[in-house]
Automatic annotation (TrEMBL):
InterPro entries: F-box-like_dom_sf, F-box_BR-signaling, F-box_dom, KIB1-4_b-propeller. Residues 68-355 form the KIB1-4 beta-propeller domain. This is F-box protein. Residues 4-45 form the F-box domain. It comes from the Eukaryota. It comes from Anisodus tanguticus. PANTHER family: F-BOX DOMAIN-CONTAINING PROTEIN, OS07G0183000 PROTEIN-RELATED.
Length: 384
């Protein structure tokens, strides 16, 4: 009887072309050497539906590797990514945007192929001295690609940078960052229908075009509620624009350590007594924006969609395509720098799944994964 490891190459190709999820695709390649030989860039179907994996925080005993948690099958994949060691990471289109902890160098890094693209240093942004952050790894707050660098060299990388949260962009070949001067205090950005749309800390939604002869020009699309105690996110879903308000990331003293992961507040200069603190998200609101009328409508029904928010490019997926993904839910990671930098353990405690229908929050990862530099983030898996 033939051994399964001796299956003909053509038959293996037929099998792999029928796989629907990238998790199954990668698992196929670890069965044996002959099966692994079929798992190539050319055989990979780039149109496969993908749901983000949770890239866990760096572990002290093995800082060259990262673990990825799959919501689909609750399995953990360990991947060696030495170029991300000791760096803060953000994500867009399956690429990591890394910022060095000590020197603040910035790169684009594909975590699965190892391809790296060096970017101009943060000190090439306009008036850098007046816009620095207390530590260099927090200078870039968010990064969003207009197109996948694996497929084209015609793309723009837009970042939210510095203490004043300005917008700056970079194109391949540029030697420095270009500042969008009229865009301070930005909370999130998305590339949609050929334009970059942003939401600022006051809930104002604007559109800007880097290809315009005057890239500092903008147009206000909508204005939401005033400043909230939390963060705004902006994303596209099924051809529509949405803004999400993640409200109530507060810091409080913990008396019952069963409530949340207890965190140690960094002592101030006054030598205040050490206590155990924590913080958490209280509520999430979702608004749909009509670009024709510039009207906003609050919604509690995303249908079959699920949103993924955090230090990644905000993303929507069709839940029914992925076992284990809940429709009408918001999957979020800890992205509140203003809170977790106050704690010795860092961020990673405020993660969960928000049920938009009833307002409840459940965990999506039961383990503990904390870091001051790079807490867990969502990463959409791609092979190229």
């Amino acid at each position: 009887m033939p051994d399964w490891s001796d299956l003909q190459h053509d038959l293996l190709v037929l099998i792999i072309n029928r796989l629907n999820l990238i998790e199954d695709y990668l698992n196929f390649g670890i069965v044996c050497k002959s099966w692994h030989s079929v798992v190539t860039k050319d055989s990979f179907n780039s149109n496969l539906p993908r749901v983000p994996w949770l890239m866990l925080a760096e572990e002290e005993d093995d800082n060259t590797c990262r673990k990825f948690f799959s919501l689909y099958n609750c399995m953990i994949l360990k991947k060696r990514i030495p170029k991300a060691s000791g760096k803060r990471c953000m994500e867009s289109m399956g690429w990591l945007i890394t910022v060095g902890k000590d020197e603040g160098e910035i790169s684009l890094l594909h975590p699965f192929s190892g391809v790296q693209i060096e970017l101009p240093h943060q000190n090439t942004t306009e008036h850098y001295e007046l816009n620095q952050t207390p530590v260099p790894w927090t200078f870039v707050l968010k990064a969003v690609l207009s197109a996948n660098p694996s497929h084209t060299s015609d793309y723009v990388l837009m970042v939210i940078e510095g203490h004043y949260q300005f917008l700056s962009f970079w194109r391949p070949g540029d030697l420095l960052w270009t500042r969008m001067r009229k865009f301070p205090h930005i909370s999130d950005v998305v590339y949609f229908t050929g334009h970059f749309y942003v939401v600022d800390n006051s809930g104002c939604v604007q559109v800007c075009d880097v290809d315009d002869s005057e890239p500092t020009k903008s147009r206000i699309i909508a204005e939401l509620a005033p400043w909230i105690d939390g963060k705004y996110y902006i994303l596209e879903s099924l051809g529509s624009l949405f803004v999400v308000s993640q409200d109530g990331v507060d810091i409080k003293y913990v008396k019952d350590d069963r409530e949340r992961i207890p965190l140690t507040h960094i002592q101030g200069e006054d030598g205040e007594e050490e206590k155990m603190y924590t913080y958490k998200t209280r509520n999430v609101l979702v608004y749909q924006i009509d670009l024709d009328t510039c009207k906003t409508t609050e919604t509690r029904d995303l249908g079959d969609r699920a949103f993924f928010l955090g230090a990644n490019s905000s993303l929507s997926v069709q839940a029914s395509q992925f076992p284990g993904i809940k429709p009408n839910h918001i999957y979020f990671t800890d992205n509140c720098l203003g809170a977790y930098l106050h704690f010795e353990e860092g961020g990673g405690s405020d993660m969960g799944v928000f049920n938009l229908a009833d307002g409840s929050i459940q965990p999506h990862y039961d383990g503990v994964s904390l870091s001051r530099v790079c807490p867990p983030i969502w990463v959409t898996p791609t092979l190229c």
